[in-house]
Design the sequence.
């Protein structure tokens, strides 16, 4: 894998996470560290097919398309992941 790309949904979800944490913690440094912690895990334990991986209180949902990792969603771990995909 030489690269990854974010779906528009995943990019918006990361933005929302950053804004919420920055607001709740009254600091952009905390929000930036959390989002960086999440994005650092995009490369871990990647295998062909749809996958998920926990990062802090969040779940990264991704799939492999040729030699690109497509990050589909970044959601809070308390969400109903199956419902997100219509199951």
Sequence:
């Amino acid at each position: 894998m030489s690269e990854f790309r974010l779906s528009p949904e995943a990019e918006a979800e990361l933005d929302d996470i950053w804004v919420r944490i920055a607001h709740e913690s009254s600091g952009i440094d905390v929000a930036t560290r959390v989002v960086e912690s999440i994005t650092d895990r995009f490369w871990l334990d990647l295998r062909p097919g749809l996958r998920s991986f926990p990062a802090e209180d969040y779940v990264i949902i991704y799939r492999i398309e040729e030699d690109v990792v497509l990050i589909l969603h970044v959601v809070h771990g308390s969400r109903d992941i199956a419902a997100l995909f219509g199951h």
Notes: The chain is about 40% helix and 30% strand.
